Amino acid sequence: MQTRTPVHSLPQYPEFRHVRQFWMPKRKRVAVKVVAGDYYVSSQDEVICTVLGSCVSTCIRDTTIGVGGINHFLLPDADCDILSSSNRYGVFAMEQLINAIIKYGGQRENFEIKVVGGGNMMAGANDIGQRNIAFVQQFLKTEGLAVSALDVGGLQARRIQYIAKTGQLMVQKLKDSNNERTMALELENQRSIQQQTNDDIELFD
Hints:
Blueprint: E1 21-24, E2 29-33, E3 39-42, E4 47-52, E5 56-62, E6 68-71, H1 85-103, E7 111-117, H2 128-142, E8 149-152, E9 158-163, E10 168-173, H3 179-196
């Protein structure tokens, strides 16, 4: 007997209608993939997936109503100045996610936060991953938001699957053969971000 792939609707919230959904047989759930530079929020029982090398994802959800999501970002350069375009881009990536969760009913006091990624993908090179980890940790500390779980650093890329409704986070460390491809994609993303991080980025409440 042939099993039919379930029919599912578009992503729950209108600003995420560009994100492609697909069926994940192993999890028996609808899934979405978040690419570098993007974010996604939902309260549905779906799997949010991404692959991280030096990039970092922050997984945040409101534990009382089950709305939450993840971002996927990479600081575009090594400038540590808090007013630099690099740090402002990071703040923007974090506030996008937090504000979307609040928009759909989440409360900061109910947040559960998990941080993943920041691998050192190029031995001997400037540790981009560590800068991303340090940025996220400092941002959350400044905002008074506690981290409940960390899976960061190391030398391997990670494939993650996150279910915001329940808070379940699954992390798979990838074999070295995947690292080169992951790093190439991230470097391409970094160059693209460097071109975009000008003074026209506005932070919002």
